[in-house]
Write a structure and sequence with these properties.
This protein is an alpha/beta fold. Helices cover 38% and strands 17% of the residues. The chain contains 17 helices and 15 strands.
Length: 370
Amino acid sequence: MAAARQAETRTPVRARVRAQTRTRGAVGGTSRTRGRGRTALAAALLALAALATACGSSGSAGEDGADASEKGGGPAQEASAGPAKDHVVDTAMGPVHVPARPRRVVVLDTAELDSAITLGVTPVGAVKAGAASDFLDYLPKSEVTGIKNVGEIASPNLEAVAALKPDLILTSEVRDGARYEQLKAIAPTVMTENTGYPWKQNFRVHAQALGRTAEAKRVESAYADKVAKVRTRIGGAKKAAAVSVNVVRFVEGADIRIYGDRTYIGTILKDVGLGRPPIVAKAKDGFSYDVSPERIDLADADVIFHATYGDARKSRATQVLDSGLWKKLPAYKNHRVTAVDDELWLQGIGYTAADKILDELETGVRKAKR
């Protein structure tokens, strides 16, 4: 369950945006976004798609592992005349020289995958969250088709990575620090120190490594615009702060987690300006306050979102959600409890995931106004 523990301390642009803005509007929108897709974030990503189509591509792998361009053009090049030069990225392991516009990228965690897809780069290889899992379900199939599986999080198959002949590897020290020497012998390896809570800073490192800092700034700006609109639609800053929200996760092989402020999802709640119940202050290192099924009453808040990692019975989600103690919670009685996708809310960790989360967050919080 190491991957589960670090999932949040552990997934837009190009053809995906062009297709989805026509049919769903929002970045990575689903039926639950209820057509609110033409948001600032989707608009910014659409602009990036047009820009990327004009400028070129970075790369994805076909079935034979050969170089394949991004959808919409050939290899991306710098706008300046002459050959593009390598640049230096400050990483957790020190300065690293990387190509100006890497074409064959391997990502070794879900946050790195989200960053790459958000910035219009389809990796040639990526790890999966578990042996039985696929690449993050909230990412469109068209964006992950052709990506080679190179193992699981914190246990990549180095031979498979090397076989793809990458020119850049993205990961974090917390995941792969022990393998750094082996990885950098394969390709320039950019590691952030951690994952999850510092996701915004990590995204900037990923963008710098991918040579897409201008695109990253537009994504960040669009996210801020959407956060402001969601806050307005739920009644403004004062009303948002008056609504306490908890995010509860049932984890196979672990206690039930009530998520704290120093997590990916915690930062999104804070950005919107939502209130948090007092129990959150007890979260260890700001990460989570863990409870047994017998103390699930401690998870109560005005609004509760819950997700399940692993088997519903083994994680005790079935036991708790069917229990009288859970059904006595005021949030449950007031129909302010929402089940959410674990991959999206707690594993993805990036701006593409955040855009979808904001839509679902708005829907769930607005129930509290009934």
